[in-house]
Design brief:
This protein is mainly alpha-helical and 122 residues long. 68% of the residues lie in helices and 0% in strands. It is built from two helices and no strands. Helix 1 runs antiparallel to helix 2. The termini are far apart.
């Protein structure tokens, strides 16, 4: 028996910088929408169960644990999305910084940006 052959497909996808940034931001926005639906569903689940049933203490605790686990996962995903957004902002700032330096030629050497660390100021 021979191995199947896979055709050599190399699609050329050419995107401009703004298109890439828009796609990245759109992907974050879509994930945020998905997370908002999960949060809404959890709220609806609580309302439905509390309305339809008289809950024992054990049932209420089990429901609470279930919702807590789901919300913890949502929070983890939110943190990752925040990191992605911050990375996109950094990339754009670096691009703008480089772009500005291309147009402003002066005799001063480039110096690194020093963050404002107000917590260390007196």
């Amino acid at each position: 028996m021979s191995m199947p052959t896979v055709p050599n497909i190399t699609p050329e996808i050419i995107l401009k910088r703004n298109e890439v940034l828009n796609l990245l931001l759109t992907s974050i926005a879509l994930e945020e929408i998905g997370l908002s639906h999960i949060i809404n569903t959890e709220g609806e689940k609580i309302q439905r169960i509390v309305k339809e049933q008289s809950l024992s203490l054990n049932d209420a605790l089990a429901l609470n644990n279930s919702v807590e686990r789901m919300l913890r996962n949502v929070i983890k995903t939110e943190m990752l999305l925040q990191f992605r957004l911050e990375d996109i902002i950094k990339l754009e700032q670096m691009h703008n910084h480089e772009h500005n330096h291309e147009h402003h030629h002066d005799d001063l050497p480039d110096t690194p940006d020093i963050p404002d660390l107000s917590c260390f100021k007196e």
